[in-house]
Every structure is written in C-alpha cells, then in structure tokens.
Amino acid sequence: MGCCASRTSDNTPPAVLAHSSSRNITAPSTRPSSIPSPRASHASQGNAHPPTGRADADNRPNTPLKPISPTQRSRLPNTLASPTAKSSSRVQPLTDSTHSTWTRSRLVKEREDWWDTQVTGSEQIWGAIRLVAQHLQAGQLQEAQTMLDVSDCTCPTGLLWRGVYDATGVQYKVPEWVVVEPEGLAEEDGMDDKDLAGDASASAMQETVEDTLADDSGSLIRVKVRTSHDQRDHQVVMRMRDPVAAIIEKLKKQAKLDPTLVIRLAYGGRIYEPNDVLEANARWNFANNYILTALVFQ
User: Fold this and answer.
1) DSSP character for 60?
2) Model pTM score
3) What is the DSSP letter of 278?
4) Is the same domain home to 249 and 148?
5) Is residue 37 situated within a structural domain?
C-alpha cells in the first residue's frame, strides 16, 4: 500500500495537446537548423532547396510582398567579391565572367540567362516567380501578390530575393540583382556600321523565316493548356502562328471562363507576352504534345 502522496488524484484534468493549426502564422519560425542556408550563391549550389516537410510548410510565416523602393539599388554579381577572391561563394556572371563592364543590354542578357538556367524545382513555380519579379519591377504590387497566391507560394520576409517557398516547402532563391535595379551600369557603346549591317542582315533573315512559316499558318492544330486555378487540361484548336493573346481568348471561351479574367501563358519557366507565338520559346515543339500552363488571375 503506497503513500498517500504517491497516489494520483482522480480530479487532475488530462493534459491537452495544442493543435499545430492554432499557431499564429506570424509567429517566429521553428524550422530545424538543418535547412540549407539561403545565403549561398547560385554559383555554388542550386536555387531550389529540398522540401522540409508539409507540417513545416504549414507553420512557415508568410508576409505580403513589399514594393521595390525607387531609390533601392542592388550590387552586380562581379562586385560581391574582389577579382582575386577564392571563396566558393563568389558569384560569377553567367555569360562573361571576365568582363567587368555592365551595360543595360548586358544586364538584360544576364537576367535572361539566369532565369533560363534554373533547372531545380518546378518549372511552373519558376515561371510564376519570374512573372512576380516582372510585376514588381513594373511597380504592380497587387498583380505580383496575386501571382504568388495563385501559385500557392509563401514569402516569409515579403522580399522576393530573400526566398519564397512552394506548397511542398521547397525554397526558391532569386538574386537581388535579377529583380532590383543595380548600381554601376555603364553607358552603352555606340553602334558602328558593322553592327548596323549585322542587325539589318538579322532582320532580313527573320523576315525570310517568318515568310516560310506563314505557309503553315493556316494549318489547324491542337495544343493542351492546363489552367492553374483548377488544374484542368483543355485542348485548344489554333493555328501555328496564332499569337498568345488569341490562344487565351479561345481558352476562355472553351473553358467558359470570365472574359475579364487576366491570363498569362507559360512554358518551360518562360512567360509569354501577348503578341508572342508559341515558338518564340526555343523549348517549345508542337510535335511533342507539350502542356502549356495558363496562369489564371482571379
């Protein structure tokens, strides 16, 4: 027979375990320290980190996107470390790591190359993030936030270049210079006669290609388009040279969508402009029955 003090009182209420869903979404993150550091550059590791678990993704803080200040400036890749630095975290330009002069045209090319070389993670998510960046650069904060919400991504800091997470907890990192206007851009060099001749030749070649393709413009084909809001596939009948804007209008009618909805088409991580044709994306091939993603803004 035990001591009275050792007996468990029948009046002691049972312990109640707090459900994880009751945690404030703005509470500090409790993610384990084993998550890869987001500070490493794209030169030393991939930009989409492995998932950290569904429960962890549910508890991750989410902050509305913040606009880019007109006076904010980023640093160009080759200014993040001295030319003699041997650190593995040094960021190198993707197209010309030996040339220290950055012009506007080079910045555009480097940004395009950066987006095109992201092979980890989901192509659809990269495409959505690219569109978010474009809206932020244009000062369209609401459109950028809508795009992020449509893709089911979260941004713990409200700053796109500090990382966003998809629904499975995978982190996607975009360098600040890809989104924010950088400092230190040099003036463009003047074009000489040789450059002008080259441009004229390229223009003439483009016209020849377009004339050749025009012969096939009347052929009707089907393309598969998947709408982002309901993940449904639609077979849209089109002509090979139809602009994206025409494809979107046909999709709206076929899928019985609100005519006022804003829709953007994407494939392979690239967002089409309304006047583009599908083959403007070098990865597109009509013969391979690829699936276009229709990003629906509701």
Assistant:
1) S
2) 0.53
3) G
4) no
5) no
User: Domain residues for 274?
Assistant: 215-297
Domains in the chain, number:
2
Domain assignment of residue 20, yes or no:
no
End-to-end CA distance of the chain: 70
3-class state of residue 257 by DSSP: coil
Q: Tell me the per-residue pLDDT of 192-206, one tens digit each, with 9 for 90 and over.
A: 444 444 444 444 444
Strands of the sheet containing 233-239, edge to edge, are 233-239, 220-227, 291-297, 262-267, 270-271
Amino acid present at 115: W
* Same structural domain, 167 and 58: yes
The DSSP result for 103-168, as a single string, is BHHHHHHHHHHHHHT--SS-HHHHHHHHHHHHHHHTT-HHHHHHHHHHTT-B-SSS-GGG-EE-TT
> Is there a single domain that holds both residue 54 and residue 123?
yes
Q: Rounded to whole angstroms, how far apart are CA atoms 266 and 253?
A: 19
Q: Would 203 be classed as within a structural domain?
A: no
Q: Is the same domain home to 142 and 253?
A: no
- Which residues lie across from 265 on neighbouring strands? 294
Least confident range of 27-36, 119-128, 136-145, 235-244: 27-36
Q: Are residues 168 and 122 in the same domain?
A: yes
Q: Residue 243 belongs to a domain with what CATH number?
A: 3.10.20.90
pLDDT digits (tens, 9 = 90+) for 213-228: 444 445 788 999 998 8
In sequence order, the 6+-apart residues with CB closer than 8 A to the CB of 73 are: 180, 181, 182, 183
Provide the H-helix boundaries in the chain: 54-59, 104-116, 123-137, 141-150, 176-179, 193-214, 244-254
Distance CA 119, CA 238 (A): 30
Biggest CA–CA distance in the chain, Å, is 106
Q: Which residue has the tokens 């910045």?
A: 107
Please count the other Cβ atoms lying within 10 Å of the Cβ belonging to residue 102. 21
Q: 141 and 258 share a domain?
A: no
